[in-house]
């Protein structure tokens, strides 16, 4: 047995279900996120007392604030922020920050992969070798519509948040040690 506590098992189940739903619908549902955050706070209050409850509430707000701050206000439903709030409620501030670290790494990898998959690399290399990097020629030779369509499409964040949560639960001690926190 891996020695996971109730909070870790519960949040892993929650993010797995949320990731599956988000992968299909591109929505992190309030019916999952809000009750999860409440359950995390209650669980920490029962198992750790008032101090753990307060840290859970702090981590809940911290997760939401970190995810809300960089978003354009008119485009999103903030399901990712509510899911990070629920993760913070279960795992506390340290677990939340490690989750955000891993989520950011996975999000960066997926973003770079998506851009790289639609870039016409052969045409780009031909332009630089053939025309010496003339920008006017680049606009004529590359199908920019395909690139713009990909850039406007959304990425399902639920699976990436779930991967970050799994990494946080299973590798938190190693990650903190690697980063110099003992």
How would you portray this structure in words?
- The chain has one domain (6-178).
- The protein has helices at 6-25, 30-68, 79-118, 121-131, 135-141, 144-152, 157-178.
- It is elongated.
- Helix 1 packs across helix 2 (30-68), helix 1 (6-25) packs across helix 3 (79-118) and helix 3 (79-118) packs across helix 7.
- The model has no long low-confidence stretch (mean pLDDT 86).
- It has 182 residues and is an all-alpha fold.
- Helix content is 81%, strand content 0%.
What is the count of structural domains? 1
| Largest sheet report | none
End-to-end C-alpha gap = 25 Å
Given as residue ranges, the uncertain stretches (5+ residues, pLDDT < 50) are none
Write down the overall mean pLDDT.
Answer: 86
Structure class: mainly alpha
Q: Which H/E pattern describes the elements?
A: HHHHHHH
Strand content: under 5%
C-alpha geometry:
elongated
Rg from Cα: 20 Å
Separate helix tally: 7
Assembly type of the shown chains? Answer: single chain
Helix content: over 70%
What is the strand tally? 0
């Amino acid at each position: 047995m891996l020695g996971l506590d109730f909070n870790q098992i519960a949040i892993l189940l929650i993010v797995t279900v949320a990731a599956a739903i988000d992968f299909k619908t591109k929505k992190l549902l309030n019916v999952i996120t809000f009750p999860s955050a409440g359950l995390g706070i209650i669980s920490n209050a029962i198992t750790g007392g008032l101090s753990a409850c307060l840290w859970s509430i702090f981590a809940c707000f911290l997760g939401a604030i970190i995810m809300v701050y960089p978003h354009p206000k008119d485009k999103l439903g903030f399901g990712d922020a509510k899911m990070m709030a629920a993760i913070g409620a279960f795992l506390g501030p340290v677990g939340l920050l490690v989750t955000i670290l891993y989520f950011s790494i996975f999000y960066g990898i997926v973003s770079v992969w998506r851009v790289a998959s639609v870039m016409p690399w052969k045409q780009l290399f031909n332009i630089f070798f053939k025309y010496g990097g003339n920008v006017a020629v680049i606009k004529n030779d590359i199908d920019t519509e395909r690139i713009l369509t990909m850039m406007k499409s959304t990425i399902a964040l639920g699976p990436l948040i779930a991967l970050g949560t799994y990494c946080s639960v299973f590798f938190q001690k190693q990650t903190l040690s690697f980063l110099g926190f003992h």
